[in-house]
Each structure stands twice: as structure tokens, then as C-alpha cells.
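User:
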Amino acid sequence: MLKTRQLCISTDQRTLIEKLDWQVQRGEFWCVLGKNGAGKTSLLHTLAGAAAPTKGEISLNEKNITELDALTLSRCRGLMLQSHMDAFNESVFNVVSIARTPYRSGKSWDTVADSDAVIHALQRVDLEEKVNASITELSSGERQRVALAALMVQSPGLMLLDEPTSHQDVAYQLKIMRLLCELAKQHAVIASCHDINHAANFATHVLLIGEQQHWQGPVEEVLDEARLGVVFSCGFRREGQHWMAY
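Assistant: Predicted structure:
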């Protein structure tokens, strides 16, 4: 699905990601972990084609991302941003239905299938009752779940999510992580994350980003006390199913 070769990402004369050779397949749920400023968001934007890498290549379905036209790219990958600024008073239904654009083939009106997909997605994020509400009236957590519904409606092979639980209360953090596990059965899912225990308990794989170094692979192989200590500059110990920082 996704392949990077010798991928390097830099900003303001600082190297964030260096020589990343990485493969992500459908059926995998990857969490990207690292401290603030490590390059998690920059990596997701680069994988989506919204920013150019400093060096290296990114391929989707064996094709270089730079060779894909906009329509093909929108069907291959989707990016859920960490936050949203809404300038227009639009309904939740219309905001989510825009994500069906790659499949409309020039048609300007929603089909029954489009509408059904929107309602089903809103049901999965517990926002069906907000379908006619204005997007500007939602809380930040609700707005973020609208963005997740839109990503599901877009239904790209590769789903990229920038801190999808950051505006959610504890119950919705767990619900979203479980939903991402479900989505990963049919898609390749990559989500940046600050909660190590969410990654440990829900993801299948982890990309751990340190200072000009990284580790990748199955969760149980990558997460250990030494690596976490190097990345986050504090101590860690495992207590049952949870990682504790000290």
C-alpha cells in the first residue's frame, strides 16, 4: 500500500526524519509516537502529498506519489487534520458529504448511496443527531469526529490521522481507537499519537521517532523501556498492560 525509500524530512535547518525505509499494508494500524516537535505531523503531511520531502520517495500502490493525479490520489489516501477552522455556516451533513467528491464522476448532486454513506459514518461517531446542525456550533471534539466521519466517507486505501483523540474525553478516546482498529481491517491506518498506552493497546505496529533516529515494527517488538526513555527523555516502566512514566 504505502512504501517510503530513504525518506528525509527537514524544517528550519533541522532534520526531523532521516532515511526512513517503511512499508505499511492494508490490515495494519500504525501509531506514530514521538515527543512534541519530533516530526509526526510533518511526516503525515508529507505522506499525504501536502508537503514535499527533503529527499527520498513515497509510493502508493507501487506508484510514486508525485505521478498520481488529484483524483487518483484522493481515492488512495486521506488526511484527517488535528484541528479545523470553519469560516462558513454549513451543515454537518454537507461537510461530510463533500468527502464523496472523488466518486461522483462529475455529478453535482448526492446519490442515495452517498447520503447513506454520510449517515452511516455519522452514526459510527455518535453524531447522527447533529446531521443538520451548523458545523460552527460544534465543540472541538465533535468537530474532530465530523472530520473522522468525512475520512470514512472518502474511504481511501490509506488513512492518515493527526492526533485523532486529542480533543476527546476518555470515553471517546477509547471509542475512536476501537473504531480505527475496525477501519484497519480494510484500510491501512496511520495515526500520530501522544498516548503510549493507546498505541500499546490498540495499534498493530509503531513508528517511534527519536532525535534523528527511529524504530519501527510490531508494537511488542518496538516499545521497551530503553527506547521510550531515549525518545521522551524520562524513565518508563511496564505495570501490567500499561506503561508508566517517571
